[in-house]
Write a structure and sequence with these properties.
heterodimer; A: about 300 residues; mainly alpha; MetI-like fold; two-stranded antiparallel sheet; 13 helices; B: about 300 residues; flat
Chain lengths: ~300, ~300
């Protein structure tokens, strides 16, 4: 009897085995190693056993002697700010428009969500050409409508490159924000709007007093996901600018890759990853705390 | 209503039409870049920079044939398809087995397993690909030396496939476990009385019932794998193994003077996704909304 029971439990373990095995090998083990490697000076070529232990030296270097890293952080943060304000603002406006009984709402929804399902690489390559200084569509149109003096090599100009990357990121992302916000809006019971109307509330008052309070959890979700996604922007950077001109569109992921591949400093790359990961964690934690506070009020 | 009817009507009219104008402008901005990519893929290198029309007069459809054969995009397409199918199948089996086990079977420590998967979903580790690369190298996935080219290729492909399967585990297990928890157990009970084995119950009863949840997982991961770039860039160095996204970047770097072919390759990359999207858009939108909870 005992034997049969043990055998049964063993069979049950077979169910979770493939997932657990894959997870331990390709997630947990690298996860632990990121922390281990970050304490060593290692080029990734010699065996790790002969790597030199440097303690927290990498972290000290990151915080005191690596302005480039913090510039890359700032770039990603700048795009994130643009995205939070303009992308999500537009997404909310469009979601409000489609939440009303409007003709063709489904067709609009389908079109808006097209860019988010496309590959970031393809999107980047299309827009790289639109922005092109010599043959780009943008300059062609600007010249045609008499604004030729504005034409420039948009992505090669340090003044405009980062904002242009941000615009493409928002183009690719607003449909995603739109879908989630629309789902949130549609979950609000219609009776509440009717009650507000009966009470004589105008459109703005209804929005402020009914829609916004009920949408706070959705806003928080969208904000957190926007921050996490945008800070880790990568595909669009490689396909649009490759980090250039100079270092003007470098972002954290490209810096980690540069430390790993260009500089053969694997330990350092891991330390950068930890600093970055912790900041993302703190940001989302703070967001959740803030939303809890607003809920209590 | 206190307002005069005519004033109210005009206001309503303006509001509705300005809303439509906004929605149409935004829609056009979504479609035009894609249309331009497509029309550029039908031009020649000589006309592509001068002819700005969206509908070229002499469409060079043969560009697609050239890109597919000479440009190698046929092979890259096959690679993308292979990776997507294998990874998605792997995710469906690994996650449905695990989720069923966690939800239904007696497995000591299963809650810990579940929470570890959940935690992995919450903790971002942007540097993990560095350690993953080291691991794949150590395990011999990046430079296999079996002497048999076919086997070497299969091993290198696995080095890309296995980590991608892993990256779909947490969300899939979470979604399927939630699904199985809510699923009534009557059918399983009667199957058990009929002498069906645990695996038989999972295969014949639980899996077919979980179709809606599995559909969401399939769609979400298909998009992820088809569009994946970073890991492909790190792991797949051989041109013959590259998926479309990676190949596009290489093609751009080496064939800078063949814009129409690049645009054909990009069109080849997005067309399957667009077709799948149009057919399954309702489910895709549901999948992404569910996937968004991943954060």
């Amino acid at each position: 009897m005992e034997h049969r029971k043990a055998k049964k439990i063993f069979t049950n373990y077979l169910f979770v085995l493939p997932a657990v095995l894959l997870f331990c090998t390709f997630h947990l083990y690298p996860f632990v190693n990121v922390f281990r490697y970050s304490l060593f000076q290692w080029d990734g070529i010699v065996p790790f056993s002969s790597a030199q232990f440097v303690g927290l030296a990498h972290f000290k270097d990151i915080f005191t002697a690596n302005p480039q890293w913090w510039y890359s952080m700032w770039h990603a943060f700048y795009i994130t700010l643009l995205t939070l304000v303009f992308q999500n603002g537009l997404a909310l406006l469009l979601a409000l428009a489609c939440d009303r009984a409007i003709r063709g709402a489904k067709a609009y929804r389908m079109i808006f969500f097209l860019p988010p399902v496309l590959s970031g690489i393809v999107v980047g390559l299309i827009w790289q050409w639109i922005y092109d200084g010599n043959y780009g569509l943008l300059n062609y149109w600007l010249t045609n409508i008499g604004l030729g003096h504005l034409a420039r090599a948009w992505l090669a100009d340090p003044n405009t490159s980062l904002t242009c990357v941000g615009i493409v990121h928002m183009w690719k992302g607003f449909g995603w924000g739109f879908i989630i916000l629309l789902a949130g809006l549609q979950s609000i019971p219609r009776e509440l709007y009717e009650a507000a109307k009966v009470d004589g509330a105008g459109a703005w008052d209804t929005f402020r007093r009914v829609t916004v309070p009920l949408m706070v959890p959705v806003f928080v979700l969208v904000t957190i996901l926007t921050i996490l996604n945008t800070m880790q922007i990568y595909d669009l950077i490689v396909s649009l600018t490759g980090g250039g001109p100079g270092y003007h569109t470098e972002v954290p992921i490209t810096r980690i890759l540069a430390a790993m591949r260009g500089g053969s400093r694997l330990g350092y790359a891991c330390a950068l990853g930890i600093v970055f990961g912790l900041m993302l964690l703190i940001i989302s934690f703070l967001q959740i705390q803030v939303s809890k506070l607003t809920k209590q009020e | 209503m206190m307002q005069k009817p005519i004033y109210y009507k005009i206001k309503q009219f303006i509001l509705t039409y300005s809303t439509h104008i906004l929605l149409i402008i935004v829609s056009l901005s979504c479609i035009l870049p894609l249309l331009w990519m497509f029309s550029s893929s039908l031009k020649t290198q000589a006309t592509v920079f001068s002819d700005m029309s969206l509908f070229p007069q002499n469409p060079h459809w043969e560009n697609f044939y050239i890109a597919w054969t000479k440009g190698g995009f046929g092979r890259y397409f096959f690679n993308s398809l292979l990776y997507t199918i294998v990874v998605v199948l792997g995710i469906v089996f690994a996650t449905s087995l695990a989720a069923y086990g966690i939800s239904r079977l007696k497995i000591p420590g299963k809650n810990i397993i579940f929470y570890v998967f959940l935690a992995a979903m919450m903790i971002p580790i942007p540097g993990a690909f560095v350690a993953l690369y080291v691991l794949l190298n150590k395990l011999g996935f990046l430079n296999p030396h079996t002497g048999i080219p076919l086997l070497d290729n299969a091993i290198m492909r696995l080095g890309y496939i296995l980590p991608l399967i892993n990256s779909g585990l947490s969300l899939g297990i979470y979604m399927l476990k939630t699904f199985f928890d809510k699923m009534p157990g009557d059918l399983e009970d009667s199957a058990r009385i009929d002498g069906c084995s645990v695996f038989g119950i999972y295969w014949h009863i639980a899996l077919p019932m979980a179709k809606p949840a599995i559909a969401v997982i399939v769609i979400f991961n298909t998009l992820n794998v088809w569009n994946e770039y970073l890991l492909a860039m790190l792991v797949l160095t051989g041109k013959n193994l590259m998926p479309l996204t990676r190949a596009l970047m290489v093609f751009r770097g080496t064939h800078i003077t063949e814009y129409p072919l690049l645009m054909s390759g990009m069109t080849i990359t997005v067309i399957p996704i667009i077709i799948v999207y149009i057919i399954l858009q309702k489910h895709i939108i549901a999948g992404i909304t569910a996937g968004a909870v991943k954060g």
